[in-house]
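Hello Y.,

Per our agreement to keep a running log of every chain we model this quarter, I'm adding this entry. I've kept the format consistent with earlier entries: sequence first, then predicted structure.
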Amino acid sequence: MQTTIYLIRHGEPHNPNKIVYGRLPVPLTEKGRKQIKNLGEKLKKEQVSPDIIISSPLRRTIETTEELKKIFSDAPVVYEENLQEYYGDFSDMTIDQFEALGNYYHAKETLARNIEQPESVLERMFGVMKHAFTAHKEKTIFLVSHGDPIMWLFWKLTNPHDAMPSPLVLHETHLLGQGQALKLVLDEKGEMKSHQVISAL
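Predicted structure for the entry above:
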């Protein structure tokens, strides 16, 4: 028997100034809500029905979950702190400025602000996934989270023995688009059997 987990990245956030919004309470745009609506409708058309939706408690993921609930009304919702974006306030920087630092998790400008490191992000994301697998074995689970946390988890699942690369490298290969999902099929031991990126676009 298998367990299926859908890691879902929130829809487009309202960020007109292109700042590094991190854990700020940023809402979805109308486009972002439509992205999630389209994703949910696609999954339902494919006869996907979540037994539970576990979501980060930030505003944009709450609003993403609200859109999913309009389609999957029977699924209970649980909010989980460990699905949140990485910790660190960089709202005085634009995304372009942040990414210009290169490996921004390890850059001196960000280490000085006590940015949460990828190892910590991975530990809590794996913890949520393992707990969800144990509690809802042989079920279908939606985990609603954020770009980098899902990216690191996706990378580690597919490269379990490799050293961590720069996030900018992974942006080209493992970063989900806003409103996309990563489908993971796990065997009875919780090992990944297959994965698939799903987009409603």
